[in-house]
Amino acid sequence: MESLFADIRFGLRSLRSAPATTAIALLALALGIGANTAIFSVVNGVLLKPLPYPQPERLVILTSSNPKAGFPRFSLSPPDFDDLRGQSRSFEGLAAMAAGSVNLTGRGDPEVLDGARVSADFFPVLRVRPFLGRTFRPDEDGAANHHVVLLSHGLWQRRFGADPKIVGQSLLLTARAIP
Question: Mean pLDDT over residues 116-129, rounded?
Answer without folding.
Answer: 89
